[in-house]
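To: structure subgroup
Subject: Chain for Friday's discussion

All,

I'm putting the inputs and outputs inline so they're searchable in the archive.
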Amino acid sequence: MSLHKKYKIEHKVRQHHRKARKEAKNHPREPQRKRDPGVPNLWPFKEELLEQAERHKEKLKEREEEQKRQRKEQHAKRRQEALQAEMEKVRTQAVRADGAFETKEKGKGKGK
């Protein structure tokens, strides 16, 4: 095989891989989820099992909502603390600037 053909093949392979990566980026494949087959009609205590599953789903949903509420509270708390820290920083800078201005003004007053 000639080197020209060899490099041409390598180039084509690189192009193909690049195209495949771009395609994968633009159209990601979602994994297929297994479906819940449900409970057979002949299952003993079917109603109780369905109620139990429903209660479990509700508990999970409540737990998720509680976690979401706690995250929101934590976020608000952190944000408030950051805001207070920023305000304190601005206040100290203002006090320093005011002090520097006062000393500068006193120095001007003595010169006259």
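Points worth raising on Friday:
The helical segments are 3-26, 46-111.
The CA atoms of residues 27 and 33 lie 18 Å apart.

D.
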